[in-house]
Amino acid sequence: MHRLYPGISTPEAETxxxxxxxxxxxxxxxxxxxRLQCNVVVDWGVWSRAERDTCREEARAAGARxxxxxxxxxxxxxxxxxxxxxxxxxxxxxxISRADLLxxxxxxxxxxxxxxxxxxxxxxxxxxxxx
Length: 131
Prior knowledge:
The protein is an all-alpha fold and 131 residues long. It has one domain (10-116). It is 50% helix and 0% strand. InterPro entries: P-loop_NTPase.
């Protein structure tokens, strides 16, 4: 986002039109890759059930199996990881404040067991730990 839109603030990147444009383009590229029978990992958005439903349905329509990897991490563990990330912040990367993380956690709609049942089973070993 910083490279495409220099000087953009975290709130602008979060809610402004720039994010939507970038994610839309990424999704179109992902669907094209799926149609070419390539594996795709989407590592953004999908904070709401509606977003996840749209991605799942469009990916399936393009011929993909769809696996949702959801890690239910406690807020304190997330904040610890963000603090370490912020301490080594690469140039051009957003600083994430505790207030940002709290706001995002409130916006996130975690998948229910019913929703998780709509996805294909993961056939690869699960990630044991994240650093």
